Amino acid sequence: MKLTRRNFIKRSLILGGSLFFGHKSLFALNKKREQWYPCYAKLEEEGELAKRVEQAYSIFEQCELCPRLCGANRQNGEQGFCRAPAKLMVYTAHPHFGEEISLVGKRGSGTIFFSNCNLRCVFCQNWPISIKGYGKEVQDEDLADMMIYLQKIGCHNINLVTPTHVMPNILNATRIAFKRGLRLPLVYNTSGYERVEILKILDGIVDIYLPDMKYMEASKASKYLSVAPDYPEVSQEAVLEMHRQVGKHLINSQGIAIHGLMIRHLVMPNNEAGTEKFVRWVAENLPKSTYVNIMHQYFPDYKALEYPEINRRISVKEYLEAMHWADEYGLTNLDPQSVRMRKIYARQTRT
Ligand code: SF4
Hints:
- The chain is of the alpha/beta class.
- It is 41% helix and 14% strand.
- The chain has a domain at 5-15 and 34-266: TIM Barrel, CATH 3.20.20.
- α9 links the parallel β5 (186-190) and β6.
- Mean pLDDT is 91; it is low at 13-33.
């Protein structure tokens, strides 16, 4: 079958959804599902969402969507650091069961992977998509179709992976999808390399922010993120703005996330990510009840083998140390899977 744009979208959606649900069960699920009123609905009713779409789109003419401030005219096909082409590119859209439990629930997080990225992490595990730019060009209407489909098959949210450089398309697609019945929270699943001025455009549209906080030191950020020495201060400012907008992680009666901030921090070998500084920063700058996921799943990928200090998985001792710091600085809302992993590792060290 020729991979036309239409076929690509169809295949991408089918890949995720129909493997999991038959048509009858889908219908039953949708009838039963708790009605969620997303925050972008209010903006649309006030006539504000259309203005935000227009505001966001105008940035494409001299792109300053992220701290790189390239100034590329993306509308005319000029490319900046992220190498994003003029048209929106999507790699895949499907229910994802590997995210945090409150995002996954029983029916998965409706994940849409965008091609390209404004960072170039040397250990990137999605490098064919984010760095090589694999994916297919789609229109904003097609993205809206994907959102509606993910809702139809029962996903609990629309999880936008690497959204920064395509934020205007996302806003436009959300508005189109809302008019077609989209009622799921948007999850802004970002590297954390965001401008506060741009995040303000998302205020009242995004329900759940899911940022990484990768590094706390400029030298590490510069070395591993393709020259982003400002990453620590930029991501810290961004996370404070996200918290101002959405506040604490909230779940509904079924344990599904509906609003709030969820921070991810990937522990790296030899404490290259600065985990102790990270937990101290959270404890000193945000409520100690902020949802924090201290992740253990680092593995060397892409160009990591060229950097001996990160060319291995983390040890049990390193992970236990990271979780110990979180306790020491008084963080009280650690991701349940990370707590479970700590128990497993602690048991291993005793045997
Ligand atoms: S989104 Fe891309 S083109 Fe725009 S400023 Fe960032 S890296 Fe440059």
